[in-house]
Design brief:
The complex is a heterodimer. Chain A is mainly α. Helix content of chain A is 48%, strand content 12%. Chain A contains 18 helices and 8 strands. In chain A, a hairpin with a 2-residue loop joins strand 6 and strand 7. By secondary structure, chain B is an alpha/beta fold. In chain B, strand 6, helix 3 and strand 7 form a beta-alpha-beta unit. In chain B, the strands form 2 sheets. Chain B has a 5-stranded mixed β-sheet with strand order 1-2-5-4-3, with helices on one face. In chain B, strands 6-7 form a two-stranded parallel ribbon. Helix content of chain B is 22%, strand content 25%. The radius of gyration of chain B is 18 Å and the shape is elongated. The chains are: A mainly alpha, B alpha/beta. At the A-B interface, helix 2, strand 6, strand 7, strand 8 and helix 15 of A face strand 3 and helix 3 of B.
């Protein structure tokens, strides 16, 4: 296909530049994990210039958001960052609930916090495991994926679906969690530190892993902020910013946890920050599951924003009318005609939704602030001057999820 | 510096009627005409410490109730020292929707501006590399505009098929 990329990827002119050559990396490459493409200009093995070419997975998720109602869109939101689906749902409903001014019940807030932290562990396990895999550490990857399975089981128990739970609803959850689910989370919190320790013992002092990640892809504090980095990538560069502490949402004020930071800003620092964040998440889950409040998970049905339970739909006229009002496309929610930006600390960084509402049950515009997209933009700055083999190390440390990258 | 102090500083510097403000829940917005947006953002970055451009996005207000302008572009700014968040918003119109690029201030704006251009056709004046980012270069429409149908206009079926020797 004749791309106009030609201008961007052309090697610099002049006879002294003729020895430069171009390498096409991806879109189908084991280390890109999903579909993204890099066009590298090389001097021997040193990278002179890198031009990312993305959009292979663009599926118009934001356009779909303008045609699906606030509850239906949850299935699409799940598929953005499919490694931490519930974190995406939490961000989306944070925007919707801020728009409609809904105060969640304490139990719902706690369950959402538990899910957010489970997703953080899940996402970091994938990132660290895959980073090790790309650098030749296969065993650490298997240990990480073994734990990931357990989180899938927890999602399955709560919602019936492993990969895309679609567990949240406006004003609450799909359904309440049961005792078995609580036991599963407890078992996970108990067993996880041991598995975590196995990974740490394989990688933290592993000479090959350290040599391939230390001083690779360095991002200074000023650069990280200037390039709009957030989350573990910014924190690995020394930016002390975590929305769970700075702009507490849900019930994060109740929990005792640390914000993990590093100074170096290289791939190894990013790996260490992610690893230590997992233990902090484990601490939060432990506090939340042991102090899980009782009571309903959904806001009061009289507020007319939350789906009524099935029993009342079948057995009472009020429930049926209520259900009808929320389902019929010409009724649904009555929102303010305004716009709102809400962001949460997702595993990858600030995940925000800029939601414009026109008063109907369908959003007028759903703009995602995708951390993967913004972090991948830093890649050309980081990789220049490094070797070809460092591409996989830097990609692995950024945790690019292409479905979120392209949306 | 709190939000009120920043807004007062802006009023002093640019005049009381240079911009309007609006508030909804915890969002605080400054709405500016497009001519003044670069100078205000520059002032906010340099003198008020807004070092992080958290988000840049656009929307098409074609069918929005009581909208006067067509394209909106917003900048969500964060001061990472104090944690203050501020939304700056501007509007632009057909036939040549243009907004100054903030790439010289925040390098993070690079891809976000390219995405807004890709989806809405808003040109960012001064951007060093304004190309389509998510859609292929052959694509001729701007699909997030409200007058573009959700199922497309058949572009996908009309992509040229080229053989290996031609590539």
């Amino acid at each position: 296909m004749p791309l106009e990329l030609a201008d961007a990827i052309a090697t610099p002119d002049g006879p002294e530049q003729e020895y430069l050559w171009t390498l096409n990396f991806g879109p189908q490459h084991p280390a890109t994990h999903t579909t993204l493409r890099l066009i590298l200009t090389l001097d021997g093995e040193t990278i002179v210039k890198a031009v990312p070419d993305i959009g292979y997975l663009h599926s118009g998720f934001e356009k779909l958001g303008e045609h699906l109602d606030y509850n239906q869109y949850v299935t699409i939101v799940d598929r953005k960052n499919y490694i931490s689906p519930v974190a995406n749902e939490i961000a989306w409903f944070a925007a919707v609930e801020k728009l409609m001014d809904i105060q969640l019940t304490p139990r719902c807030q706690y369950i959402r916090v538990i899910f957010n932290e489970l997703m953080r562990i899940h996402d970091h396990l994938l990132c660290c495991g895959a980073a090790a895999l790309d650098l030749g550490g296969f065993t650490a990857f298997l240990y990480a994926f073994n734990q990931k399975e357990k989180i899938y089981d927890i999602c399955e128990r709560a919602s019936g679906q492993r990969f895309h739970p679609s567990f949240l609803r406006v004003g609450g959850l799909l359904r309440d969690v049961d005792e078995t689910w609580i036991d599963m989370v407890r078992a996970f919190v108990r067993d996880f530190p041991k598995a975590w320790n196995d990974i740490v013992r394989l990688l933290n002092r592993n000479r090959i892993f350290i040599e391939r990640t230390k001083d690779i892809g360095v991002l200074s504090k000023e650069e990280a902020t200037n390039l709009s980095c957030t989350g573990p990538i910014a924190r690995a560069s020394g930016v002390v910013r975590d929305l769970r502490k700075d702009e507490p949402y849900l019930a994060y004020k109740d929990f005792d946890f640390k914000v993990i930071c590093a100074r170096e800003g290289d791939c190894f620092a990013r790996y260490l920050v992610r690893m230590d964040e997992m233990l902090e998440s484990c601490k939060i889950i432990h506090q939340a599951i042991e102090n899980l409040p009782s009571g309903p998970v959904n806001v009061d049905a009289d507020s007319k924003v939350v789906m009524p339970n099935q029993l009342s739909v079948y057995r009472s006229i009020e429930g049926l009318i209520h259900h009808f009002e929320l389902i019929m496309t010409n009724r649904q929610w009555h929102t303010p005609v305004d716009e709102v930006y809400a962001a949460i600390e997702s595993p990858n960084g600030e995940l925000g939704y800029y939601l414009i509402a026109d008063g109907s049950g369908v959003a007028y515009r759903t703009r995602t602030r995708p951390p993967s997209f913004i972090h991948f933009a830093t890649f050309p700055y980081m990789i220049v001057g490094h070797q070809v083999s460092d591409v996989v190390a830097v990609l692995g440390s950024l945790n690019i999820i292409a479905a979120e990258l392209d949306r | 510096m709190t939000r009120e102090e920043i807004v007062n500083k802006l009023r002093e510097r640019f005049g009381a009627d240079a911009f309007s403000t609006s508030e909804f829940r915890d969002n605080y917005r400054i709405i500016l005409p497009v001519e003044r947006v670069y100078s205000v953002l520059e002032y906010l970055k340099i003198s008020c410490g807004f070092d992080l451009l958290a988000e840049l996005g656009g929307a098409d207000y074609l069918q929005y109730p009581n909208a006067r302008d067509r394209y909106g572009v917003w900048y969500v700014l964060v001061n990472t020292t104090t944690g203050v968040r501020l939304i700056v918003k501007t509007f632009t119109n057909d036939p040549e929707p243009t907004v100054p690029s903030v790439y010289p201030l925040w390098k993070g704006a690079d891809w976000m501006e390219r995405e807004v251009y890709d989806m809405y056709g808003v040109v960012f004046d001064g951007h060093p590399d304004l190309r389509r980012i998510l859609l292929p270069d052959e694509f001729t429409s701007f699909p997030m505009r409200k007058d573009y149908p959700m199922r497309g206009r058949g572009e996908r079926h009309n992509f040229p098929i080229i053989s290996r020797p031609e590539s």
